[in-house]
Amino acid sequence: YMIISGIANVLLNLLYVGALRMTVSGVAIATVLSNSIALVLILIQLAKNQDYCKIEKQNLRLSKQEFKEMIQLGIPACISGISFYFGEVVVTSAVNSLSADAMTANAIAAQLDRINYTVGSSIATATGIMISQNFGAGNFCRVRRSMGIGTAYCVAVTMGVGLCVIGVSDAIIRLLTDSEAVVQITKERFILLALTNFITCTMEVFSNAVRALKRPRFLLYVGIICGFIIRSGWAWFVWPICRTLPFLFVCFPLSTLIGILIYLPVYLFAIKKEETILSGI
Questions:
Q1: H/E element holding 234?
Q2: Spatial distance between the Cα atoms of 194 and 39, rounded to a whole number of angstroms
Q3: Torsion-angle region of residue 63: left (phi > 0), alpha (psi -120 to 50) or beta?
Q4: CA 78 to CA 72: how far, in whole Å?
Q5: pTM, 2 dp
Q6: Measured between alpha carbons, how far is 226 from 145 in angstroms, rounded to an integer?
Q7: Which of 218, 226, 201 minimizes the C-alpha distance to 268?
Q8: Residue 35 near residue 8, CB atoms below 8 Å
Q9: CB neighbours of 79 closer than 8 A, spacing ≥ 6?
Q10: pLDDT in tens for each of the 281 residues of the chain?
C-alpha cells in the first residue's frame, strides 16, 4: 500500500506539471491526495485483516483511561519536538545570514541528511516498540537486551549508511547544483553530520526507551534543554567566534550527545525501579 501511495504521488505530481506547472500549490495538492489514497487503502486493509490487527466499527470510540495516557505521553513529546524545531529555526536563520551559497548548500545537505536519519530513526522506533512490549510483559531482561541490540544496530547501520551516502554525495550534489562553491560547502556540512548522525540516532533510541518506560516528562526536559537552549545558544553566542557552516552545525551532535547523557541515568533508574515494583508484587 505504501508502494501504491508512492506511485500515486509521482503520478499526481506529473499530472500537476501540466495543470499547474509544478508550482508549490500543485505539489502540495498532489501530496495531500496521495496521502489520502494511502489512508483509504490502509483502512480497507485493516478492516479486512483477521490476524494481528483489525479495525471494528463498534470499537471506534475513546476510552477515558487510554485517552489520558495518550495525552500524558503525547504532550511532552509534542513540546519536545517543537523545541527541537525552534532550535533548528535559529540555526537556519544563522545559515541565511551567511550567503546565498550557504543557504543553497544547507538545503541540499538537508536532503542528503534525511536518507541517513530516516534509517536510524526507524531502527530507534522499532527498538522502542520492542521495549514497550517487554516492559508490558514485565520481562526486564529482554528490555535490556532489546536496548543493547537496538543501540548497537542503530549505530552500526547509521554509520554504514552515512559512509555510503558520503561516497556518492559528490555525484548527487552535482545533480542539484553547478556551483563549485556550493558543492564544497555542501560536502563540508553534510560530511560532519553524516559522520556524527549515529549520536543523534542513539539519542532517538534512548528517547523511545524512556517513552516506553513511561517517563515522558524527560522528553520535555531534553527537548527544551538540548533542542532549543543548546542549539540556539550555540548559534547566538558561540558560532560568531568562527562563522563557518560546519562549525555552526557542531551544535547538532553536541546537543544530542547531551540528550543521551540525560536519558541514560533516567533509563537505568526506571529499569531498576520498575523491577523493584514488580518483585514486590
A1: none
A2: 33
A3: beta
A4: 11
A5: 0.83
A6: 27
A7: 218
A8: no
A9: 220, 223, 224
A10: 555 555 555 555 555 544 444 455 666 666 677 777 777 877 887 778 777 677 777 777 778 888 888 888 889 999 999 999 999 999 999 999 999 999 999 989 988 888 888 889 989 999 999 999 999 899 999 999 999 999 999 999 999 999 999 999 999 899 888 899 999 999 999 999 999 999 999 999 999 999 999 899 999 999 999 999 999 999 999 999 999 999 999 999 999 999 999 999 999 999 999 888 887 75
Residue 128: CA count within 13 A, CB half-sphere: 21
Q: Which DSSP letter does residue 53 get? A: -
279 to 25, 30, 133, 140, 275: CA distances (angstroms): 58, 54, 18, 11, 6
The packing angle between helices 180-212 and 251-280, to 10°, is 10
The secondary structure of residue 139, as a DSSP letter, is -
Sequence-distant (6+) residues with CB within 8 A of 172 are 112
Q: Rounded to the nearest 5°, which phi and psi values hold at 7?
A: -65, -40
d(Cα 94, Cα 251) in Å, to the nearest integer? 12
| Cβ atoms 146, 134 nearer than 8 A | yes
